[in-house]
Amino acid sequence: SRLAAGALVAVLTTPLYLAAIWHIYLALAPAGKWPSLRPLLLLGIGYVYGPFVHGSFYYVAEMDKLLPVVDPPAQAAVLETATRATAVLFGTYFVLAAVTLAGFVWMIVTVARGGSRYPRWVALANPIVMIVIGSLLSRVLPSPFSIWLDGAGLNLGMLFFMALSTTLLWHERSWQPLDRLALSDGDAGRL
Predict the structure, then answer these.
(1) Residue 175, Cα to own-chain centre: how many angstroms?
(2) First to last CA, the chain
(3) 68 CB-contact burial (10 Å; exposed 0-12 / middle 13-18 / buried 19+)
(4) Apex 122 CA angle, 165 and 15, nearest 5
(5) What is d(CA 26, CA 36) in angstroms, rounded to the nearest whole number?
(6) Is the peptide bond before 144 cis (omega within 30 degrees of 0)?
(7) What CA–CA distance (Å, rounded) separates 151 from 157?
(8) What are the tens digits of pLDDT across the range 5-50?
(9) Cβ distance 149 to 160 under 8 Å?
(10) Residue 169 half-sphere exposure toward CB, CA atoms < 13 A
(11) In principle, which of 41, 59, 115, 175 could form an S-S bond with 31, CB 3.0–4.6 Å?
């Protein structure tokens, strides 16, 4: 079913997100151990929790689908179980969001301070901004694209950011001299 496929996509693509986090770490590594390691750890934790939460909504939805086919006393028990499961998932979602947001903010600060492999302007074209753009995209696209992409804002945003990041790092030599010219000699000494 589409519901199971949607749940499994998040779980089975976890290695791709972990590779993306490693990619970000490698781009931040020249800035130093802690400016690169902390985002790696925070984003790693967030993206390990994400598939659990996303995949677990499948079970809540399956419980919800039982409501019209079971007798009224059983409906109350199924609804209570689904409500408790949802509360656990939202608690985990909060932790996931807080840890991931902290990782992105740390990454943005590291990029803005300079010394990473990213040009400083990437601090403005960061994953948070890209996720917002990805989330708004489904609201402005015509049907059926808006239907297909509804709820995919986080994934679209990360796709946009990773495409930007990969392009920049593949072509690093072409922009690097220009970015380094923006640093004064005093700034370069502090990196």
Answers:
(1) 26
(2) 52
(3) exposed
(4) 35
(5) 8
(6) yes
(7) 11
(8) 888 888 898 999 999 999 999 999 999 999 999 999 999 999 999 8
(9) no
(10) 17
(11) 115
